[in-house]
Amino acid sequence: MEFILSLLTDEQRMLRETVLGLCQGPLKELDDKVGETNVVNREILKFLADQGLLGLVVPGAYGPGPATMSLVSFCLVREELARTCPNAELIFTMQGLGAGPIVVAGTEAQKEKYLPKVASGETINTFALTEPSGGSDAAAIITRAVKKGDTYVLNGSKTFISMAPDADVYTVFAKTDPDKGTRGISCFIVEKGFPGFQPGERLDLVAPHPIGSLYFDDCEVPAENLVGAEGEGFKVAMQTLDFFRPTVAVCAVGMAQAAMDEAVAYAKQREAFGQKISEFQMIQAKLAAMAVKISAARLLIYQAAFLKDGGKPRISKEAAMAKLYATEIAQEVIDQAVQIHGGYGVCKGYLVEKLYREIRALRIYEGTSEIQHIVIASQLLR
Fold first, then answer.
1. Torsion of CA 51, 55, 60, 66, to 10 degrees
2. 3.40.50.970, 3.40.50.300, 3.30.470.10, 1.20.140.10: which CATH number matches 234-381?
3. Strand pairing of 169-175 and 125-128?
4. Of 58, 268, 280, 359, which residue is 20 to 30 A from 151 by alpha carbon distance?
5. Rounded to an integer, what distance in angstroms lies between the CA atom of residue 204 and that of residue 277?
6. Residue 14, Cβ density class (10 Å: 0-12 exposed, 13-18 middle, ≥19 buried)
7. How far apart are CA 167 and CA 292, in angstroms?
8. Cβ-based neighbour number of residue 253 at 10 Å
9. Strand ranges (E), 130-195
10. Phi and psi, residue 232, nearest 5°
């Protein structure tokens, strides 16, 4: 981390120190009080907004953050939140992801209407692409949007949508031309309360998480809520994910770092065969391998982030490399932390047991590891 810190601006170092302080104090106390939950906590949302952190997920013209959104800054915040405040991490991230299509391709009127409420925490926002029929295969989505006068009428469903059913605003992807594959997908802003829109049931995951399904039954969406042009929805989604995939990777690294810290502390106090288990070379080898993998993942992540902030228009390959490697090694690191804890590693109440359940989803969402291989190869062979 020292090398990465040496590349930061003074403002970014101050940001990191501020977040560290919050994560060691009031925010952690609040996050711990909430505990594992499948409901979005609006008290945490308000705290993040009051501290100005949600201003980082929209351009400065629409909130209290810098004029230009910084992927490096976003990664710095998400890593520290992932280490200690998982509820806050999810809310911070999803406010950004949900608003991402509006930031990327929204009209000025859309940005003025929706983005200030993201930064202030007035609304909970989320991103709705996945369907029962189309997860990794986005072209297979079957939700339809048909234009009728000055509205679009949506029919279909979504699933595995983080923040549902609690979110207030959803960026929803639907087919406006089913015969054109990904070129027939468009993006819409759908508000809770629109006629025909029903946020559905919550889903139960191995690690509690606010996530659910959505249903559209002749849902009426004003034509002015089309984000970008018709048929540009897939492009908008990929541009959004380009920015957020490295942040999934840094979330994984934050969780892996938390697990390694726990493993080191436990190994230094646990005794077996007359000595601390940290004195056994096998335990030392495990810890060393964990540290190397975490450091390598961080470098991949911040390579992508600095390239993006430096003006590179697309970082698809770098983002996919970071997301693939970091999420895969994080599961390995956390698994080894559980192993070092022995039987206590699978006992409720131990952080490593919680992390073991939480980490698994990161290899799936925002593009599975298998999809990341395809993205990387397609970029190499282009």
1. 60
2. 1.20.140.10
3. parallel
4. 58
5. 37
6. exposed
7. 38
8. 31
9. 144-148, 151-162, 169-175, 185-191
10. -100, 5
> 10 Å Cβ neighbour count for 59?
17
β partners of residue 190:
170
Measured from the Cβ of residue 155, the count of other Cβ atoms closer than 10 Å reads 16
Name the fold adopted by 2-123.
Answer: Butyryl-Coa Dehydrogenase, subunit A; domain 1 (1.10.540)
**CATH 1.20.140.10 placement within the chain:** 234-381
pLDDT of 172-224, one tens digit each? 999 999 999 999 999 999 999 999 999 999 999 999 999 999 999 999 999 99
| Residue among 163, 188, 220, 140 nearest 38 (CA) | 163
- What predicted TM-score, i.e. pTM, was given to this entire model? 0.95
Q: Which of 89, 131, 358, 366 is catalytic?
A: 366
pLDDT in tens, 66-110: 888 999 999 999 999 999 999 999 999 999 999 999 999 999 999
Q: Where in the chain is the domain with CATH 1.10.540.10?
A: 2-123
Token output for 310: 């430096």
What would the CATH number be for the domain defined by 126-231?
2.40.110.10
Catalytic annotation present for 366: yes
